[in-house]
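Risk register update: the risk of archive-format incompatibility is retired. Evidence:
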Amino acid sequence: MAHAHHKIDSNTVDFQVDPVVLELGQRFVDAGHELSLVGGPVRDLFLGRTSPDLDFTTDASPDQTVALIKKWADNFWEIGRAFGTIGMRKAGFQIEITTYRAEAYDPESRKPVVAFGSSLTDDLLRRDFTINAMALRLPSLELIDPFGGVRDLSASVLATPGSPEASFSDDPLRMMRAARFASQLGISVHDDVRLAMTQMAERIKIISAERVRDELVKLICGANPRVGVDLLVDTGLAEFVLPEVSALRLESDEHHRHKDVYQHSLQVLEQAAALETDADGAVPAPILCCGSQR
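Archived output:
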């Protein structure tokens, strides 16, 4: 399929962020710390989308973060403290602030060994894809993009900051996320990413069924679900997460309209998604059932 190409120039983008974001950044800078908006919210600024959920990263420790926000936030919680994350609400936003991290994983599980880091670049390197490995330093609004996220977003291609093998070994669910982003953003997948997905597909078996299900729901609710499903089938991931769909390729189409039932089923999926509407007519599927697309 043809993919939309976004003409993006980071030098001419006027980042419009809520005053709450700038205020929070100023609090950290005044205390001698760094704070950056990071990940999906930065990507969405380029795509003209906004989200009430904001992710930040900082060199401040969780204790230092709590000290800076406990009187500022409407309320806060420390459920993710062991992973360096402090959550809060402020002026209608749900905010998570995470200390710079360098993570390693037991290759037989998904239990992370958390080590706090001191470098924003190192923190961005451990993220899933380059389009999610951009940061907006606050309150200066300086874009930090060491791995070419703007370039890849402009080219509408999904690539990893480091090697895809290392990324998917750290968290095999990222292979599912690749298919989900293909569906949601109509984005193509870099050849190296596709190859790694194919070679490492079986590793998805160590991920819990609940986490796999959540990614599948977001994929099906994306604007281009056929693209995402096709990627799962082509790389062999579907054999582990949607074996019934892979099996459709072995069935013949009795009406002879398609070479197999699989292609026919994908067309039905596409047509069903196109029929989803609200009071104003057709709307993108993610708005209907998925909420946040991060």
